[in-house]
Amino acid sequence: MALAVTAARARATLGEISKAMEDGFGRYETVPTPVKGVYGAAYRGEDRWTQVVDGIAAFERRRGRKPRLLVAKMGQDGHDRGANVVASAFSDMGFEVVSGPLFQTPEETLVLALEKDVDVVGASSLAAGHKTLIPELVRLLRENGRPDIRVIAGGVIPAQDYDYLRERGVAGIYGPGTNIVDSAADVLRLLGHNMPPVEEAAE
Fold first, then answer.
1. 195 and 153, same structural domain?
2. Which residues contact 18 (CB under 8 A, 6 or more apart)?
3. Rounded distance, CA 67 to CA 69, Å?
4. Please, what's the largest Cα pairwise distance for the chain?
5. Are residues 79 and 44 part of one domain?
6. Residues 103 and 20 placed together within one structural domain of the fold
7. What angle do CA 163, 178, 151 make, to 5 degrees?
8. Within 10 A of 106 (CB to CB), how many other CB atoms are there?
9. What's the whole-model pTM score?
10. Which CDD domains match (predicted)?
């Protein structure tokens, strides 16, 4: 810690300090683990939940597999509770969910997305890296011939940054307070399923 403080006083960046520590000690790695059954038990029988579950079943009949979502945590963001909530709820609805390790680079997320052949990457951001890391992932997917993999973003992202992200190819943004079932319905729409909008579903 003392050496990190000395480096910071000498104007080293957080990235430079972190890289030096990683080179010396290795990178701390952990993979968030979704829980099963919590959201299914709470929402079962509700119309919107049923619509999403039916939509996922229709996707599976059409494509021969369930829709695949990679939940990605990039950068120095070690907050994984929100990512776990999303992974757990989407899994209960029927998505095939891949939880990525914490502290990934966009390049590492790209490799995992291609390896798992996902349909969507959900980038969870709570540490203000959204304007650099998420557009970089979009760029890498395009350069590697997979612009079809949709990139969505969630977490603490200021509303004034939404247009910036959309202009750089982010397909959906889900901030604090977003209804998890509605966000799943929106993801299905992004994948081409004809989900009714929230207003119609409530009628």
1. yes
2. 76
3. 7
4. 62
5. yes
6. no
7. 50
8. 23
9. 0.83
10. MM_CoA_mut_B12_BD
Q: Which amino acid is at 94?
A: G
Q: Is the separation of the CB atoms in 70 and 112 below 8 Å?
A: yes
* Pairwise CA distance, residues 93 & 115, whole Å: 23
Q: By CB neighbour count within 10 A (0-12 exposed, 13-18 middle, 19+ buried), where does 33 fall? A: exposed
Q: What is the CATH number of the domain that holds 197?
A: 3.40.50.280
Half-sphere exposure (CA, 13 Å, Cβ side) for 74?
A: 26
Local structure of residue 78 (DSSP, 8 states): -
**DSSP 8-state assignment for residue 197:** P
Cα-Cα end-to-end distance for the chain: 58
For residue range 8-65, what is the model confidence (pLDDT) as tens digits? 999 999 889 988 988 888 876 666 677 787 777 888 888 999 999 999 999 999 999 9
Report how many domains make up the chain. 2
Q: Say if residue 166 is in the same domain as residue 181.
A: yes
